[in-house]
Structure formats: structure tokens, C-alpha cells
Amino acid sequence: MLEVVGTRELGFFGGTCRGAAFEGFVYDKEDGARAAGLKVLGLEGCEEEIKCYCNGGGVFVGAEEMEGKGVEVLARFTEKVKVEGGDVAAVYCKVGAGAAILTGVHPEYNPLKYVVDGRIRAAQLNKADGGPEFVKLIDELLAHDAGRSLFLRGILKKLGLKVSVENGTNGVNGHGIPTLTPIHISSSSESINRAIYKSLVTIADQPSSEQDNTFTITDTNDTFNIRRLSSSFDSMCELKQILLNGHHAHSNDPTPKTIYFHPSPTTYQNFSPKQYFSHLPSTSTIGQSLAYVYTTSSTQTLLDKNPALLRCLPSGFVIHATSQLNGRGRAGNAWISPRGALAFSFTLRLPIKLSPRLVFVQYLVSLAVVEGIRGYGEGWEDVNVGIKWPNDVYGKSRYAERWEKIGGIIVNSTYFENEYVLVIGNTSYKAHANWEGCGINTTNAHPTTSLLNIIPESLAPPTHERLLANILSTFSDMYTEFLQSGFQKFEKKYYERWLHEGQIVSIENGITRGKVMGISCADGGSGGLIVDEVDLQGRSMGRRVVEVIADGNSFDMMKGLLRRKR
Questions:
Q1: Are residues 446 and 550 in the same domain?
Q2: What pLDDT was estimated at residue 482?
Q3: How many CB atoms lie within 10 A of CB 470?
Q4: Does residue 453 fall inside a structural domain?
């Protein structure tokens, strides 16, 4: 049995969640995972008995005694559990003017399968992550997935949320999953666009030439059907066809991604590449080529998990999505990025001789995002945005004193032919500022904290086109200097924008009281957070200084606690 000790700040459920409910649980592994049977109680439109992925969840002890006092039992385990305290697997709890639902299983884990390179994958579950028993588990979950989906929808409805109708309308297919849409590539000049197209032709599945208008690329993670549109008239006809007939690639099947190369930037309903390029300085080395997609799985995955495609793209190529279904963050976290979040990823090249500076790229991007926001226009200079180490962007709402996460950075690197090819992506959305791979909550609707809540009411809402151009051009200027002089040139400005000046912290299994002194910025340094042990008056004890590296650690700023990511 595992026990979580210490105060519980949220305390949604007044009793105890006791687990693990079943034998075999091993932390951070799939050894004890199972398709747990549930009997569903009182949820609209649900099957009476379902199965959901369970790995270490517990039972809610005393829930029955609390019914009628703000607690409702929503589901029970149908199998015998190994702990005492009943069999309640899910509860609804009234919390102040709102409510919360807690479950001992994972109804959000989607096992719908699709095939990539001969391997069967799933949205959150991959058969390659375990042995034969895990493969059987996913097959069992697949057989019961309709019930899981209805259970999840019932939970959301219980919380008063609107759920898309599973009728194929509003961009939702028959499984309740938003459909993926084509990717549209355009550039600031026709010659840049032609060069990218010509480069991609070299990795086509079948021998092709630059004169071919269509070809296919089968890469490690995705297959791409690519078509070059020869005129603006072709672009308009293709757009009309999409609007009339829709596009039927789903996020959980092997349907190829469609890419259109446009001869010149155009304007779509939710984003205008034409306006974006009008705001981007011609001197910027980042963002002169743009791929725009309304709905995709993950901008980060499209670039980072398709190495052949990545090698052919120029440094500074950017992809922006209006919404992402499976955005990626640190430690494998997955996020949904809805409309309103400025979600984008871009490529970058770093010479091998400058590899000691690789760790500082995430800091430079974080600084560029903050400076890009503050430099958006007149009246934005003092907008309350700052950096939380190592790679989060925080903002302070006009209506609160608490800083909340509005965005974040993820950097993935691959070594190709004497240089690192980086994919810098977003971790933008989460409803309550915790830990999706660069992204900013820009015009998101309530309750998400976004720039709309942070900027003065006298300022007009930002446009995604102008903000994206400003962030990328700001980073371009910084990166040019970074290649020449390293991160130390930006150290002063970074400290002006971060939220940890003199902060008193504790380190899990280490210093119980320390002061944040800065980061190790010299070339060859780890880029880690430097913490000096201090006494109760905040004076250095001269005993030890600890350096906490970014990779594998998280910073709970509200608690002042540095700890291993779990």
C-alpha cells in the first residue's frame, strides 16, 4: 500500500483515497496496469458496466456515508479490490460554488489504435511500452472503448460542460474526435517556398521531379501527401473544396496528412498567413516559411517525430495550429490546445561546436516570448508576464495577485551531420496554471488565464498573426547574438524577467532552506539553478551550494519546492 503524506491543499474529497486498488502496481511502469471493470451509477447516457485503464488508482473510503452531503458515488469497481474501505471508484464532490469529479481509473486514456511503421499505436497507450500482457490489455480496452467514451462524456456533462454531439458535425467525427485538417505552407517569397518543395521532392516515396505537382512521403511517424498549387486560383478552389466537403483524416488512424504548397500567402477563417508575413521583418531569420493548420495532433510531433521531413526543412521553419489534439510537454505530458492558444513549433540549427550552449536555448526562447509580448505595441511594455524556471511563462491577471501559467517551452534536439537540429514547441494550455512543445494562452475563453486577463482593459486584444511574428523576430535577433556571444549577454535581462529573485526554496531530499542565486550561465555550465543554503534570516550558512539541473526536475513555485518530476 502507498501513502501520500502531508497536507492536501485541494481537499476536494473529505475522505481517503486508498490504493493501489489492485495487486501488481509498480510506479512509472505498466506492470500492474489492467482493464478495470466498473459499474456506472447515475450518469446520463452511459452503459451500466464498462472497463477503463487502471494503474495504481485507489478506492474512495467513506464515500457512501457522505452521500447527501455534497458527495455522489458515480462508479464502483466490479472486481474484488486488495484494500479495505469499499469499492467506490469515482465520486462527484461539491466544492464551494463548483464541483469536482475524482476517479481511480483513467477514462481519459484513449486506446483507439492506428498503425505506423507496422507498429500499433494508441492515443495514450502504445503496445510497444509493455510485454505480451500489456498488448492483451490494450486489446481488451479496445473492445470496451465505446463504454469508456460514453463514461467520459457523462462525467463532463455532470460537471455542466458542453460536449460535442457525435454526429460528424462541427469538425467532429463519429467517435467524437475532431478531424485533422490540411497543412498549408507559404513563405515570404516564392523562391523560399520553391526551395522547400524541391528539398522535399528528394525524399518522395517514388522518384519525382520538381515539376511534379503531387507526391507522397512516408516518414517514421506520419505519411504526407504533398501537392503544389500553381496559382492563387488553385488555392481558392482547394479551400472552397475543403469548406464544402470537409477533410476526413482522423487523429487515430493511418490516413496521410495532406500538405498544400501555396504560391503566395492567403487568409483563412481563423488565421491569416498574409497578415503574419506583413508583421514579420524581412531581416528575421526565423519564420520566413510558415505551415498553418487549423486542427492537428501536435505541431511538435509533426516535426520532431518525422526525421526525414525535419532534415529537409530550413532553420526557422514554423508551424502554427489553431487547435492541437495531443500537444506535447515535458516528461511526456500530453495536452489539448484549444482555440485561443497561440500554439506553434519551429526548427533551429545549432553547430556542433556550440553544443555546450544547447541547454540555454530553452531559456533564450522563454525570454524571447516574454519580450515579444511586452514589445507587442504601445502600452504593452509593463504587462505582467515573467519567466518561471526552467521554461514556463507566467502572467498575473488583473483580478488576482497570484501568478499563473500562461505558456511554456519544450526543446527537442536531434543530431544530424555535425549540427543539432532543434524543434522548439509549445506547452501552452491548461485550465489551471499547472503543467501541454512555444505556446501562449492568448485569447482563450474563461476559465483559462490568458493575455486577455492580463493586459490593461484599455488595450485591444492581441492578434495571433502579429504576436507570433513579434515573438519569432525577437528570438531571431537574440539567437544571432547568442551564436556569437553565448547566453551570458542575456543573463541580466533574464533575471529582470524571472520570478525567483532571492526566493527562499527547499529541495526535496536536500537543502531544507535555500536562496535562489541564479543559474549557471557560463559556456560549459549546466544551466542549472544555483541554490545557497541559508538560515532562518536568509543569510548564507557557507555550508553548501546546490545546482539543480532543469532536465528531470520541476519547480513548484507556490510551495517553493524543487523536486524530481513524477
A1: no
A2: 96
A3: 24
A4: yes
Comparing CA positions, the residue from 49, 20, 43, 42 lying closest to residue 33 is: 20
The total domain count for the chain is 3
Give the domain range for residue 547.
Answer: 500-564
Domain presence at residue 489: yes
Please answer whether residues 204 and 217 qualify as being in contact, where contact means their C-beta atoms are separated by less than 8 angstroms.
yes
Closest CA to 315 of 279, 350, 353: 350
**DSSP per position, 388-406:** ETTTEEEEE-TT-SSEEEE
**Is residue 344 one of the residues assigned to a domain?**
yes
Report residue 327's pLDDT band, with 50, 70 and 90 as the boundaries.
very low
Task: Kindly state whether residue 172 falls inside one of the protein's structural domains.
Answer: no
Q: Domain check: are 317 and 423 in the same one?
A: yes
3-state SS string for 332-349: HCEEEECCCEEEEEEEEE
DSSP result, 253-276: S-PPEEEEE-SS----SS--HHHH
512 with 424, same domain: the answer is no
Q: Are residues 486 and 511 in the same domain?
A: no
124-137 burial string, b = 16+ CB within 10 Å, else e?
Answer: ebbbeebeeebeeb
Q: What's the whole-number mean pLDDT along residues 429-452?
A: 66
Q: Is 39 helix (H, G, I), strand (E, B) or coil?
A: strand
Which of these three, 110, 129, 158, is where a domain ends? Answer: 158
pLDDT at 250: 38
> Is the same domain home to 316 and 411?
yes
Percent of the chain beyond pLDDT 70? 80
Residues 381 and 305 in one domain: yes
Collect all residues with Cβ–Cβ distance below 8 Å to 177 and sequence separation of at least 6. Answer: 112, 250, 251, 252, 325
Given pLDDT bands bounded at 50, 70 and 90, which one contains residue 9?
low
Cis before 314 (ω within 30): no
DSSP state at residue 198 = H
**467-477 tens-digit pLDDT:** 999 999 999 99
- ∠ CA 558-564-565, rounded to 5°: 80
What are the grid coordinates assigned to 268, written together?
483563412
Residues 436 and 510 in one domain: no
Q: What is the CATH number of the domain that holds 440?
A: 3.30.930.10
Cα–chain center distance at 537: 39
pLDDT at 256: 81
- For 131-175, write each residue's pLDDT tens digit: 788 888 888 998 998 999 999 999 999 999 888 665 433 444 444
DSSP state of 507: E
Please give the full DSSP string across 308-335, using - where no structure is assigned. HHHHHSPTT-EEEEEEEEEEE-GGG-EE
Q: What is the pLDDT of residue 565?
A: 55
Over residues 211-266, the pLDDT tens digits come to: 778 999 999 888 999 999 986 545 555 555 554 444 444 333 346 899 999 999 99
Cell 524543434 -> residue:
423
Per-residue pLDDT at 176: 47
* Spatial distance between the Cα atoms of 451 and 395, rounded to a whole number of angstroms: 8
Last residue of a domain, which of 158, 182, 199?
Answer: 158
One domain, residues 391 and 303: yes
